[in-house]
Write a structure and sequence with these properties.
The protein is an alpha/beta fold. About 25% of the residues lie in helices and about 20% in strands. The chain has one domain: Alpha-Beta Complex (Spore Coat Polysaccharide Biosynthesis Protein SpsA, Chain A).
């Protein structure tokens, strides 16, 4: 279940948490955990990226359609937690994942509907993390709005605005901040409240070379699955 590679990054230990409990109502194709991606259910790919990227272990939080997801997806390498209150929003899955993880670990929070997540992104966040802080993947807006045209091909204030970094997922929460973060988690917000209240504690790491950072919410975004 564990991954020895996690401790090679300056002795850091992190548990990855995949938030995979939603029903995918807006998408209308059942739980997004089971969307096909590279020949496997998406939840398998996301959890594998976290483990192979350096997390010591991975907690997969299921909810809607949990029996079906657990049957179809191969999750034997991971710790699975089932959230009976998944309808209350992502916050309850966030809290369950935190409770399931080893209390001494940092937490690397990932969304199941972000197919562009790579092991390289995970490793980069672990490598850049500083004690007592939150490390977030960030993506250049231009990569999402103009087909990924390199920054050097743009000029002027409008282009600079398009090319600014936007914070996204995954999100690495230092072990020392876990209790402070979970005290702010409500509804569907996850760690958003804490991040807004403490921007000085957040380090953004550019991961635009790995993906656009987009997730899949609507049918017109299914192209992200390739």
């Amino acid at each position: 279940m564990g991954n020895q590679g996690a401790d090679s990054t300056a002795g850091r230990r992190a548990t990855g948490i995949v938030l995979a409990a939603g029903a995918g109502t807006r998408l209308g194709m059942g739980p997004k955990a089971l969307l096909p991606y590279r020949g496997r259910p998406l939840v398998e790919v996301i959890a594998g990226s976290l483990l192979d990227g350096g997390c010591r272990e991975v907690v997969v939080v299921l909810g809607a359609g949990a029996p079906e997801v657990a049957t179809i997806a191969d999750l034997d390498r991971y710790r699975v937690a089932i959230n009976p209150a998944w309808r209350s929003g992502m916050g309850s899955s966030f809290l369950l994942g935190e409770q399931t993880a080893d209390p001494g670990d940092h937490l690397l929070i990932a969304l199941v509907d972000q197919p562009g997540l790579t092991r390289a992104t995970v490793g980069r966040l672990l490598a850049h993390h500083r004690p007592g802080r939150i490390t977030a993947a960030a993506y250049r807006r231009g990569d999402m709005s103009d087909g990924g045209m390199p920054a050097g091909h743009r000029a002027g204030p409008e282009s600079e605005q398009q090319n600014r970094l936007l914070r996204g997922h995954p999100l690495l929460i230092d072990a020392s901040l876990r209790q402070s973060v979970i005290a702010t988690v409500t509804g569907d917000a996850g760690a958003r409240g804490f991040l807004r209240a403490h921007p000085d504690l957040v380090d953004e790491v550019d991961c635009s070379d790995q993906s656009t950072g987009e997730d899949i919410d609507t049918p017109d975004q299914l192209g992200l699955l390739g």
